[in-house]
Amino acid sequence: MKIVYLALFATLLVSACASQPAYKPANGSGYGYKESELGENRYRVQFKARGESRDKAMDYALLRSAELTILKGYDWFVIVDRETVMDREQSTMETGMRQERIVTRDCGLLNCTTRSHTVPSYSVGASTGPRSETETILEIRMGKGVRPSTGDSYDALETRDSLQSRTGV
Predict the structure, then answer these.
(1) By the 8 A CB rule, do 140 and 80 touch?
(2) CA distance 83 to 87
(3) Number of neighbours of residue 131 by Cβ within 10 angstroms
(4) I need a labelling partner for 9 at 20 to 30 A (CA). Which of 97, 104, 128, 140 fits?
(5) In which band, very low, low, confident or very high, does the pLDDT at 169 lie, cut at 50, 70 and 90?
């Protein structure tokens, strides 16, 4: 009987971990959103996820930007700069040795540098499939009153409401 309860508890624990929402505050350099103040009305908003599409990561970064704009007492925000970084890893099994290809992409203001290398790992077990991470980084400027007519300006309330209904957050 104890084994049945233990199996049930383990199943519930695994399903709870698997159903964690993607949209949440990040812990350290983990997955979710985080922001940092760059100036009085300027912020860097980041959203990092595992297995999410580029569009979904952008939606979550925009949603956090809208929420932050409202929290800080502003009406609208303009995207000053945007960047999306996608990293993919592939692991395969070859006669007891696992090869992991690691791709790193560093982007600055003017260009991006991509580095790739393979790391051998001797182990026994099943191979894993492709894994991916997507990180969207937005630099925003917030304002009050009449919203600028540029293409990258957003009404905070409209954006929040629209993205909350679309993403199910």
Answers:
(1) yes
(2) 13
(3) 12
(4) 128
(5) confident
Pairing of strands 153-155, 42-50: unpaired
Please count the helices (runs of H) and the strands (runs of E) in the chain: 3, 7
CA distance linking residue 15 with residue 51, whole number of Å: 17
Task: Using the predicted structure, report yes or no on whether residue 96 has a pLDDT greater than 90.
Answer: no
Task: Provide mean pLDDT across the span 106-122.
Answer: 60
| pLDDT > 90 fraction of the chain, expressed in percent and rounded | 41
Helix (H, G, I), strand (E, B) or coil at 52: coil
Which amino acid, residue 166?
R
**Measured CA angle at 85 (ends 80, 39), to 5 deg:** 30
Question: Which secondary structure element, helix H or strand E, spans residue 163, and what is its range?
Answer: helix 156-167
Which residues, including other chains, have CB under 8 Å from residue 14's CB and lie 6 or more apart? none
User: Quick one: DSSP state of residue 39?
Assistant: E
pTM value is 0.65
CA distances from 141 to 148, 150, 156 (A): 11, 13, 12
